[in-house]
Amino acid sequence: MPVLARASGNLHVRRLPAAGSGGLSKRQPVFNLPGVILALLAAFAVVQVARDSISAETDAWLITTFGFIPARFSHHFAPAGLADAIVQEINSGVPESTVRYFLGEGGWPWWSPVTYTFLHGDWTHLGLNGLWLAAFGSAVARRFGAMRFAALFVLSGIAGAAGFFVVHPFGLEPVVGASAAISGAVAAAMRFAFEPGAPLGPGRNFSIADDGAYYVRALPLARVFRDGRALTFLLVWFGCNILFGAFARPLGVGDASVAWEAHIGGFLFGMFAFSFFDPMPDQRLAAEPEPEPEFDAPTSSQASGPRHVP
What we know:
This protein has 14 helices and 4 strands. The protein is mostly helical.
């Protein structure tokens, strides 16, 4: 989950074989993560190992340089409001040197809405994000492919930074963590993962690897709010984020606040932008069987009732 850190190619259409062909099912390996997921996990780990091996001063520079600090953007978008916020910070007892340190040199840190996703508060923070990425990101990565998933990950992270900026435009504490980007993948998975035959659908045998589970028909956006499983997941996800965001410090969960606003920004992007990344519409048309011919009834009246399209 993002936290407020305190510093010290070509699309290949995949045609699904006919049901019962047996060409998709096989035993599920214990470790079976897509390459793009493994690459992200490795990148997170390499960054954390590097941070553990450098001095506290260098690590603080790394966090303030590559973490997302909203006030550094307000310096360009709303300088008058930022000036008032700085005065309030100093009047509340924050040393002016600390304020200047977090504001930096006044440059344009355009990279930070992306790079903050590769920094984590500690190994526990990284491990929790890694579990969510492996659990939900893997299904989306298999459906989208590496390039589309990477684009979703990056843009969801940017959306998370934007969501946090809207709520805290003059924030001085760096935001770090991948869970805004991962939240976008979670939302994308919600659009198809709970459907019959999907990875988390009813009756799924998790010991059997079925590639077709990742290519089921996705829920239209309008149906997300009427589908029982998707709606339940949506409400639980939002409820937990707001709960932990509001009570993380009082409950003693870590020494930093949970940037739940960034989670919601990434999640909303993944949910609403899903169709722009999903390669399945063309594949779905290719995989659908041709409709059976209809014949007139002997009474010359056509068969009653509309055909049901699943």
